[in-house]
């Protein structure tokens, strides 16, 4: 690993990025249409575009095929440009075959995958803000890419996806509120990459099933110094062979060995302060476009009970620029309920009562912010409440515990039988003091029979021995306890 790091450094010293020889293009919102026409006429030339402050509507992707040339897209000094897409399905930038690419100081909003790069070298994507996009960056066949100090939030799918390249560095990015509409992705995904480094990133608040950092058929990966919080399934996952050194990270599961547990981001102030836009570029956030109402919620799912239903959903892909503070849950049979965003983030669901038994019922969700409410979601699949007499679930299985100072991560498996009602929580009792900790949220609701999950607790005495019991709870009560001795 030391030899690889020295080789990369030597390459950077001996092979600096070439300067763009063409005269820079100074873009403003007023001349933007003219600039786009000019770029369309010469997509293969060296290009440098300096964006002044303002909003730039992008109706179709800006495409560059410089065939070994250089492309620079950057904000002018202290400018705060916003590239605003016209469609949630289209990219904003597409570059292929460049000898060097630099994208810096731009705000990308309302697009599919915002930036698509193919077979480019010397890539630098730094200090940009991506929000309300499907993903921030798709890089295919890149050599020596550096993706650093970006802020990426409110993405429908995978924020950063690198495939088939070599020597990539993904570092010091702030990534949160991702996988809002899709499942099976990751915050940082590596596919058949060679010798990538993923370090110093702060990754939190994942909504769909997936991972924080994922690698497939990737060799020589170095994953270190990352902080991961509130993930749905995995903090780190490797598939399809490959090799990786994964140490010095702060993971909610603590695994694999050589990494530490974390329960909240303030425990790692160095990463918290360094991740995301650097000081010179934080004006991007202060100069965001005027906020608007939130978008529509998605992935609404309901399960029926006796004159009741549990409903869960994904928040809007985009909150409009003001945080969502409440949700209205409406049943097709006329019942409704409003809950706070804090309640939803804690519990992961809402329970509606007084729904007639025997009648199919669908549910829609509407998000509210200080500016008003967005559109109602598409309705859920219909469910039929009916008279049931659930029993308590079967007992879960406690699989093991990992201690790290005053914290502990407990791995457990969901019961094979739910007793005829949705399991809404797991109750952990810490012995001998009999302190109780309740695990709830979307992750708990989506567990199927035998699925493995983990929960992290803190404020344990360092060096002291503890035992644990765990029960599963549904509307009928708590199951028999599984136990784990000190």
What's a concise summary of this model?
The chain is mainly beta and 486 residues long.
Describe this structure in words.
With 486 residues, the protein is mainly beta. It is built from six helices and 39 strands. The strands form six sheets. It has a 22-stranded parallel beta sheet that branches. A hairpin with a 2-residue loop joins strand 32 and strand 33. The relative contact order is 0.07.
Derived from helix and strand composition plus strand pairing, the structural class reads mainly beta
Shape: globular
What are the low-pLDDT stretches, counting only 5+ consecutive residues below 50? 1-18
Strand content: over 45%
Integer average pLDDT = 91
Q: Provide the helix percentage.
A: under 10%
Number of strands: 39
Distance between the termini: 39 Å
**Major sheet size, sense and barrel closure:** 22 strands, parallel
Radius of gyration, whole Å: 24 Å
């Amino acid at each position: 690993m030391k030899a690889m790091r020295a080789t990369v450094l030597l390459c950077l010293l001996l092979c600096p990025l070439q300067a763009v020889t063409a005269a820079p293009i100074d873009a403003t919102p007023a001349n933007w249409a003219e600039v786009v026409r000019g770029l369309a006429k010469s997509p293969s030339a060296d290009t440098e575009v300096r964006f002044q402050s303002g909003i730039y509507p992008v109706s179709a992707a800006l495409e560059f095929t410089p065939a070994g040339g250089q492309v620079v897209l950057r904000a002018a000094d202290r400018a705060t440009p916003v590239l605003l897409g016209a469609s949630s399905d289209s990219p904003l930038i597409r570059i292929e075959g460049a000898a060097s690419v630099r994208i810096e100081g731009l705000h990308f909003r309302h697009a599919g995958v915002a930036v698509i790069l193919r077979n480019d070298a010397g890539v630098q994507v730094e200090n940009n803000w991506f929000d309300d996009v499907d993903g921030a960056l798709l890089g295919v066949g890149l050599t020596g890419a550096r993706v650093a100090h970006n802020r990426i939030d409110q993405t429908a799918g995978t924020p950063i996806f690198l495939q088939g390249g070599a020597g990539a560095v993904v570092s010091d990015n702030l990534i949160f509120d991702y996988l809002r509409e899709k499942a099976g992705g990751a915050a940082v995904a590596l596919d058949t990459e060679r010798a990538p480094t993923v370090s110093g990133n702060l990754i939190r608040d994942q909504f769909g099933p997936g991972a924080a950092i994922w690698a497939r058929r990737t060799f020589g990966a170095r994953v270190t110094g990352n902080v991961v919080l509130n993930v749905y399934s995995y903090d780190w996952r490797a598939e399809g062979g490959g090799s990786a050194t994964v140490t010095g990270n702060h993971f909610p599961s603590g695994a694999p060995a050589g990494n530490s547990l974390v329960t909240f981001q303030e425990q790692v102030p160095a990463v918290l302060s360094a991740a995301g836009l650097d000081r010179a570029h934080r004006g991007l956030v202060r100069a965001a476009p005027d906020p608007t109402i939130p978008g529509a919620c998605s992935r609404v799912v309901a399960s029926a009970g006796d004159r009741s239903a549990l409903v869960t959903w994904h928040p809007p892909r985009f909150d409009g620029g003001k945080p969502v503070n409440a949700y209205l849950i409406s049943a097709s049979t006329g019942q409704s309920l409003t809950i706070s965003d804090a309640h939803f983030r804690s519990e992961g669901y809402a329970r509606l009562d007084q729904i007639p038994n025997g009648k199919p019922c669908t549910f829609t969700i509407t998000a509210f912010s200080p500016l008003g409410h967005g559109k109602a979601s598409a309705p859920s699949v219909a469910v039929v409440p009916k008279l049931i007499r659930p029993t308590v679930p079967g007992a879960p299985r406690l699989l093991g515990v990992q201690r790290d100072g005053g914290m502990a991560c407990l791995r457990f498996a969901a019961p094979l039988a739910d007793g005829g009602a949705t399991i809404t929580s797991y109750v952990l009792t810490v012995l001998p003091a009999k302190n109780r900790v309740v695990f709830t949220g979307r992750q708990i609701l989506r567990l199927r029979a035998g699925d493995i999950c983990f929960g992290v607790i803190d404020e344990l005495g360092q060096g002291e021995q503890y035992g644990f019991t765990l029960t599963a709870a549904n509307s009928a009560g708590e199951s028999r306890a599984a136990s784990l001795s000190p």
